[in-house]
Design brief:
alpha/beta, Rossmann fold, 2 domains, eight-stranded mixed beta sheet, four-stranded parallel beta sheet, 9 helices, 14 strands, about 20% strand, binds succinic acid
Length: about 325
């Protein structure tokens, strides 16, 4: 019997159309899931595919409503005895955020693979069909279980915690940090590096259908505490600093955030640099700050939102979550 895979479509360039191969512009999220599955039907994939349209959007518009529907649909597919693995098609711009959010809030019993494309479906050299065929290979592999949510882009498989989009164009736009890819894949082969890493099959966090507001403060030369005051509103429950280098910030920004932290606002220092760890510094104790470690600002934001949703505001407990694998 061939593998049975549920495909949950959310839009993005993988379902995008430009209208011609030389068009300079295109629209993400144009092809519906039924049409898409017809197009992949000719690839000869060894899988029985069934599809569901969750949304058909540019992933710039991804947010709570679509995440709620997507999470529900994945749980339903996990409960379905007729489903062996799940593929989520997604725009590449916020793919890493969705993948990480799902990784933290889903059990690890069936493979969940998020996939996108950098070129629209009618472009010369459309990468979406190959990425999709690779995703089918991964979602249908029993060894994909126990690895949490995986991302397939450009013949590589990444862990959701590691993956990040690092280029605006080109089919090699994704990298992993601190782990590079965890497997190499083609439509015909799959090679894992290392054993599954999830020690617990249960979700790390309960699903929250209304995540608290966490603001990302982007640090730069000339940023002042006054600007931060304007960015952090009454509804803000936490702040992630996209810091300079190893999570640094101008002195007036630090003072403003220390002041806020003393009034109960958790602050996480991440980095605006492409790669590298942000470790704890001695001043973090005095400031009440948390070091974001390997997570970039957009992923640090997701983790902080889930912690806050669970009522966790204590910096030491937040730090332990950021220190996790
Ligand atoms: C999007 O993220 O929806 C548009 C860009 C892409 O998918 O590459």
């Amino acid at each position: 019997m061939s593998t049975r895979i549920t495909v949950l479509a959310t839009g993005g360039t993988i379902a995008g159309i430009a209208g011609s191969a030389i068009a300079k512009d295109y629209r993400a999220g144009e092809i519906g899931i039924d049409d898409y599955l017809d197009r992949v039907g000719g690839l000869g994939l060894e899988a029985e595919l069934s599809g569901k349209q969750i949304a058909n959007i540019d992933s710039a518009d991804m947010g709570q409503g679509t995440w709620n529907a997507l999470h529900d649909a994945i749980l339903a597919a996990m409960d379905d005895a007729e489903c062996d693995g799940i593929i989520v098609t997604h725009g590449t711009d916020t793919l890493e955020e969705t993948a990480f959010l799902l990784d933290l809030t889903l059990p690890a019993d069936k493979p969940v693979v998020v996939v996108g494309a950098m070129r629209p479906a009618d472009a010369v050299g459309y990468d979406g069909l190959r990425n999709f065929a690779n995703a089918v290979r991964v979602a249908g592999d029993p060894q994909a279980s126990g690895r949490g949510v995986l991302v397939v882009m450009g013949d590589r498989v990444f862990g959701a915690r590691d993956v990040r989009k690092v280029r605006t164009r080109g089919t090699d736009a994704f990298r992993g940090f601190p782990r590079e890819s965890v497997a190499l894949v083609t439509p015909a082969s799959l090679e894992w590096f290392g054993a599954p890493w999830r020690t617990d099959a249960h979700a790390a966090f309960a699903w929250c259908d209304d995540l608290p507001e966490v603001v990302i403060v982007y640090s730069h030369a000339g940023l002042t505490g006054d600007t931060v005051t304007r960015q952090v509103g009454a509804a803000t429950r936490g702040v992630v600093v996209a810091g300079l280098g190893e999570g640094n910030m101008p002195e007036t920004v630090r003072q403003e955030l220390v002041r806020r932290n003393r009034r109960g606002l958790p602050v996480v220092r991440a980095s605006r640099a492409d790669e590298g760890l942000v470790d704890r510094e001695p001043e973090d104790d005095a400031n009440g700050f948390v070091a974001g470690r390997a997570l970039n600002p957009q992923k640090a934001r997701i983790l902080l939102q889930l912690l806050l949703a669970g009522g966790i505001t204590d910096p030491a407990t937040i730090q332990r979550a950021f220190d996790g694998r």
